[in-house]
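Researcher: Please predict.
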Amino acid sequence: MINSHDRQRYSRHLLLGDIGEAGQQQLLRAKVLIVGLGGLGSPVALYLAAAGVGKLIIADGDHLEVSNLQRQILYDTPSAGESKALLAEQRLMALNPDIDLEVIDEALEESDFSSYIPEVDLVLDCSDNLSTRKAVNRVCAAEGVPLISAAAIRWEGHLMLFDFRRPETPCYECLYPPSAAEPVLNCSTSGVVGPLLGVLGSLQALEALKLLLGLESDINGKLLVFDGRHHQWQRFAIAKHNQCPVCSGKSQG
């Protein structure tokens, strides 16, 4: 049952017919892994903590640099040089001390993902490199755990949801096959406008709440591309490849 404290904290959720008390209880029982606590992970972690997601596992091995502050809204200037994961822990616990927070102050490898991902309901990939995204994708697909991934550079953002509980769902490797090289362009070399990461991270958090609440999403297996400069969206269906080394063994329905 929702207690009086929770009723006050989550009152705006309780007013929504498709969340209500039962939905908030679902969120309070949910377990989520957030990979990366940068420009995307900042809004993701803040919104999921604020929403009352019962257990958050947050992972990042980097230390805060002044150049991060243009877009990574979890942090502040006096904290430059400190661990992002530990700084995030302080901020998130101050925001909502009722959640269970597990902090991993290191970059996770595929073997680590194989330990953590089977224990959660959902993974949010907020990392900034292709190898991590592919490793997360492989383990999520193998374990049947839904994955929400995003990326941003310059004025353009990408958003994808792969609900691996559904056998017809394609995967990240279908879009970026094994032969795909690490992109030459990234935000470190080409720049990114700060609020773009806020937009994409907020949408990751929104889709996460919908999935955890059992609400339908119409972006499963799709790539959404956002042009922040002209405020235009494009949507592309990701084809499930018969020869995909990650998901081709799953039935296409």
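Model: Residues 196 and 228 are 7 Å apart (CA to CA).
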